[in-house]
Amino acid sequence: MKDIIFAMAVRNVRINLLRSILAAIGITIGIISIACMGMLGSNMTASVTESLSAMADKLIVSPYSGKGGGGGPPGMSSGSDNLTKSQYKNIYKIASKYGYVYGVHSIRAKVKKGKDEWNTQVYGLEVSDMKTILNNLTSGGYPSSDNSVLIGSSFAEDNDFKVGSRFTVGGSGVKVSGIIEPRGMSMDLSTDNAVILTKNMYESAFGAKDEYNQVNIVLHDINDADAVSNDIDSQMNRREETVRVQDSSRMVSMISSSVSTITSFATLIASISLLVAAVSIFNIMMMSVTERIREIGVLRSIGTQKKEILRMFVYEAALIGILGATLGMILSLIMGYFFIHIMIGNTKYFFTYDSLIHLPYAMAVGLIICILSGLYPAWRGAQMDPIEALRAE
Question: Which of 185, 205, 221, 319 could be a cystine partner for 170, CB 3.0 to 4.6 Å?
Answer without folding.
Answer: 205
